[in-house]
Write a structure and sequence with these properties.
single chain, mainly alpha, 84% helix
Length: 140
């Protein structure tokens, strides 16, 4: 079961999408980490508030990049369709924010992991959830 699932991720119908989604997500995660650091260390914001702002900014960035490259064969074009896709991805990714913030909070406050490392873990945990929903709803 696990072996066939992993094989499908490598060579199945969603393999190319998953690889591209991962590249875009990795880039956006890097941007999110820099923004979080700036908000906390330079802007003196609480790490959770900084994370919410950084997440929302990278939601928009991720949508633009995923629409142009990852899901180019299903691309949302035209003004209304593009904005509907942006709204859908905000709903999808918005539902992932509590997951990401929850993991971030638990790791920082209970396990005493540094906030940037905890955020990286939280991004990874919520990533597969976002891929599944974006693939089937935002561009499905």
């Amino acid at each position: 079961m696990l072996r066939s699932t992993l094989r499908a991720l490598y060579s199945g119908p969603y393999a190319k999408l998953l690889r591209r989604f991962f590249v875009v997500g990795s880039f956006a995660a890097g941007v999110q980490m820099v923004l979080l650091w700036l908000f906390v260390e330079i802007g003196n914001l609480n790490y959770l508030l900084g994370a919410v702002i950084a997440i929302e900014l990278t939601i928009v960035l991720s949508y633009v990049l995923n629409n142009a490259w990852t899901f180019q064969t299903m691309q949302n074009t035209g003004g209304v369709e593009y904005l509907q896709g942006l709204l859908k991805t905000n709903v999808v990714r918005g539902t992932a924010i509590p997951i990401q913030l929850g993991v971030l909070f638990v790791l920082v406050e209970w396990v005493t992991v540094p906030y940037l490392l905890a955020n990286a873990v939280a991004i990874g945990i919520s990533g597969l959830y976002r891929f599944a929903l974006d693939t089937h709803w935002t561009w499905g």
